[in-house]
Design a protein that fits this description.
- The chain is of the alpha/beta class.
- It has a single domain, classed as TIM Barrel.
- Helix content is about 40%, strand content about 15%.
- The chain contains 12 helices and 9 strands.
- Strands 1, 2, 3, 4, 5, 6, 7, 8 and 9 form a 9-stranded mixed beta sheet that branches.
- Strand 2 and strand 3 form a beta hairpin.
- The two termini are about 20 Å apart.
- About 40% of the residues are buried.
- This is PI-PLC X domain-containing protein 2.
- Keywords: Hydrolase, Lipid degradation, Lipid metabolism, Transducer.
- One of its GO terms (biological process) is signal transduction.
Length: about 350
């Protein structure tokens, strides 16, 4: 039965994404329209009750080792980074994704974890993504996402701006203006979480929920407060401790009033980095542990007290997005049973 469901879903989604304008590689399995392809009964389920795949440090598929070290790092790291080798090592531990925004979207990722910063000496107040080292300009990332959404008008994304570095009021205003310019009428105004269903958003032609973990959200109706999307962090290198943490925080999840992010990620300690200095995050910590984390995901069930958004590092290393999306089949089965 499970094998049949997988075949059916792949037929419905398609196995190859259409070539994208940037000419970048595409995932083997395409989930570019998975929300549009959900059964009609799920169109009226709150998004907070659906299983939605997300990525951790979503923008970090590229970081610039030639740029200054970011303001998110300690003074000691900044001093060490004057040695070119140190920046090369930092890059190996700062990169948490292989796929660009467009490739992640094609693969089915709908939640993006975003950390942003101004850059020292940058007179034009441009804002960049950051994770130890500076990534691409935020504007470029937003335009890449908007291009996808225009081509896929029934897909919804969550953009979670949760860390801000070296940003004063002028920087925030510039960033928020960029968000408005990029998405325009696609932006969804903050309101009741329970009212956010696919059907409601499709009727309003809204596709973008922006979460802004800073008091500036109060000044703009399209910015959702960060408290509406809690993302508890295990901060461990142990898969066992991570899974225990995920189970505990899910059991404590409020059934109403917010979305919920399960961060299915491992976080390196200083000694982890020292042991795997040249190997980097992917080879030292993620590659060998991700299959076990995915096994936990397969046992989960979405719903008011179940999983909602699940994030991972290197979402392409395993069939992460499809595994999360297929959990929604359980909601369909529940509704069918309730009808009997």
């Amino acid at each position: 039965m499970l094998a049949f469901r997988k075949v059916r879903r792949k037929l419905r989604m398609g196995t190859i994404c259409s070539p994208n304008p940037g000419g970048t590689k595409t995932p083997e399995v395409c989930n570019a329209d998975w929300m549009a392809s959900l059964p009609p009964r799920l169109h009226h389920v709150p998004l907070s009750n659906l299983a939605i795949p997300g990525s951790h440090d979503s923008f970090s598929y590229w970081v610039d080792e030639k740029s200054p070290v970011g303001p998110d790092q300690t003074p000691a790291i900044k001093r060490l980074a004057r040695i070119s080798f140190v920046k090369k090592v930092m890059k190996k531990w700062s990169v948490t994704q292989n796929l660009t925004f467009r490739e992640q979207l094609d693969a089915g990722i709908r939640y993006f974890d975003l950390r942003v910063s101004s850059k020292p000496g940058d007179a034009d107040q441009e804002i960049y993504f950051i994770h130890g080292l500076f990534g691409i300009r935020v504007w470029d990332g937003l335009m890449e996402i908007d291009s996808f959404l225009t081509q896929h008008p029934q897909e919804i994304v969550f953009l979670d701006f949760n860390h801000f570095y070296a940003m004063d009021e002028a920087h925030h205003k510039r960033l928020i203006l960029r968000i408005q310019e990029a998405f325009g009428s696609k932006l969804c105004s903050a309101c009741s979480v329970e009212s956010m269903t696919l059907q409601t958003l499709w009727e309003k032609k809204c596709q973008v929920l922006i979460f802004y973990h800073c008091p500036f959200y109060k000044q703009y109706p399209f910015l959702w407060p960060g408290k509406k999307i809690p993302a508890p962090w295990a901060n461990t290198t142990s898969v066992r401790k991570l899974i225990l943490f995920l189970e505990t925080t899910l059991s404590e999840r409020s059934p109403r009033g917010s979305f919920h992010v399960s961060q299915a990620i491992l976080t390196p300690r200083v000694k982890t980095i020292a042991r795997g200095l040249v190997g980097g995050l992917k080879n030292t910590l993620v590659h060998r542990n991700l299959p076990a984390i995915l096994d936990w995901v397969k046992t989960q069930k979405p719903g008011a007290r179940g999983v909602n958004i699940i994030t991972s590092d290197f979402v392409d290393l395993v069939d992460f997005a499809t595994t999360v999306i297929e959990l929604n089949e359980l909601l369909q089965e529940d509704r069918a049973l309730a009808k009997c």
